[in-house]
Amino acid sequence: MAPHGTFRRHRVVVLALDGLLPFELGIPQRIFGMARDAEERPLYEVVTCSVRPPGPVETDADFTVLVPHGPKTLATADTVVVPASYELGPVHDEGVLTPELAAALAHIRPGTRLVSICTGGYVLAAAGYLDGRPATTHWMHAEHFQRLFPKIQVDADVLFIDDGDVLTSAGVAAGIDLCLHLVRRDHGAAVANEVARRTVVPPHRDGGQAQYIQRPVPQAQAATTTAARAWALGRLHEPIQLRDMAEQESMSVRTFTRRFREEVGVSPGQWLTQQRVERARYLLESTDLSIDQVARAAGFGTAQSMRQHLQATLGVTPTVYRRTFRSGSPGAGTGFGDSLASSVR
Length: 345
Fold this sequence. Notes:
- There is one protein chain.
- The protein is an alpha/beta fold.
- It has helices at residues 22-34, 90-93, 99-105, 121-126, 142-148, 174-187, 189-199, 226-233, 242-248, 253-264, 268-286, 291-297, 303-314, 318-325; strands at residues 10-15, 44-49, 55-58, 64-67, 79-82, 113-116, 134-135, 153-154, 160-162, 166-169.
- It is built from 14 helices and ten strands.
- The strands form three sheets. It has a six-stranded mixed beta sheet.
- Strand 3 (55-58) and strand 4 (64-67) form a beta hairpin.
- Helix 8 packs across helix 9 (242-248) and helix 11 packs across helix 14.
- The two termini are 29 Å apart.
């Protein structure tokens, strides 16, 4: 951690591999590059490197990108991001690194945070970083990924998994979800929400990959649970019963519960808890309300109930969270975030 009173940007190094997807290559720059502190100072420095000396790197499109840094840049990273590539060769086919890629990864310092987007997870897996850990990748590759790397606990249902110092995401846009999560983990919900607003994306997507997998002969359904969710968000501070939400859509509780899980990926109760945790985080960061007042405003009723939910979700108490992420805190991407070592499901 930087000495007290100094400001140091967290350095993110993005590894550009041949066959990369330009969209995914740009995600870290777009998300981390938009993060600012209360004084409008950039919180991250994002640079791109190749496994070779500086020069062109092929993409899956009809153009190449000129990468200004070589593999030694990986030694300067606080976080390394590996986006997807369609030309992983033996990494994808056999689960082994090429000599060139192995030499590049050897520059990464112990303790560096590692992040993959989509099939970039194959690189982390082939390097052994995911052995014995939970991980995810694009749902279309999950079965192959598990066969190739049996030591990994593959979860194809989630958008991303946070296992502390190693994080993996599902396909393409899930990389945005993961990078926003890291901004939130490093600097709090207020900073991440501002990045999301500027980028015109949701600060947090509900559910997992299940909602994007094409099912055979899906049943047509006109009704949705959108109105019930909007209704609930407007009264999180009040007791909300499942039957109350079902009534907003004129459905039976059974039908509503099934439809809700199909659309959102989690149960109505889990979703309500997620929304209340997010409301509590925002109030702890941005207001002077007491812990008891925040608990009531977020719908937890009591400080003890809120404490239990935040402890289970974030690994810290409301008091510790407020002290860490109070508006204007000069966090540099270390400290509290390092304690969030549980999978985000």
